[in-house]
Amino acid sequence: MSPDADPDAIVDQILALLSEDRYPSARRLAAEAVARHPGHARVRNAWAIFDPHGKATVASEASERNRAEEFEWLRQPPESARGKWVALVGSDMVAAADTLVQLVESLRRQELSKTPLVHYIA
After folding, report:
1. Domain ranges for the chain
2. What is the dihedral of CA 106, 108, 111, 114, to 10 degrees?
3. What is the pTM (predicted TM-score) of this model?
4. Reduced 3-state DSSP string for the chain
5. CA angle at 95 for the pair 90 and 99, rounded to the nearest 5°
6. How far is residue 44's CA from residue 9's CA, in Å, rounded to a whole number?
7. 88 within 8 A of 112, measured Cβ to Cβ
8. Which residues neighbour 69 within 8 Å (Cβ) at sequence distance 6 or greater?
9. pLDDT tens-digit profile of 59-72?
């Protein structure tokens, strides 16, 4: 992508790379994008996925919530979850998808009372 590319087009490319599970390429592009367009909200949000300095924000509920049920579920996930991204609220799998982008899209369509734990099941 060229240095003068539209920031929204760059973010769309980052999401496309994520949908293809090309995480290192998506991260490199996000780093370049935030360096070129640090004030652009979508670019900042895309970079927050990868930010190695921990600047991405986390809801206060997530830092206080006990995740024991989710971690117990992760100890022995069902075979149907293998090779998928999953979202858990307690011991309930509220969404599953082949890619992280698909999972996020699925979660956006739901009204959840608590922030889910997102994990890839190898």
Report:
1. 7-50, 60-121
2. 90
3. 0.53
4. CCCCCCHHHHHHHHHHHHHCCCHHHHHHHHHHHHHHCCCCHHHHHHHHHHCCCCCCCCCHHHHHCCCHHHHHHHHCCCHHHCCEEEEEECCEEEEEECCHHHHHHHHHCCCCCCCCEEEEEC
5. 125
6. 14
7. no
8. 88, 90, 91
9. 444 455 788 999 99
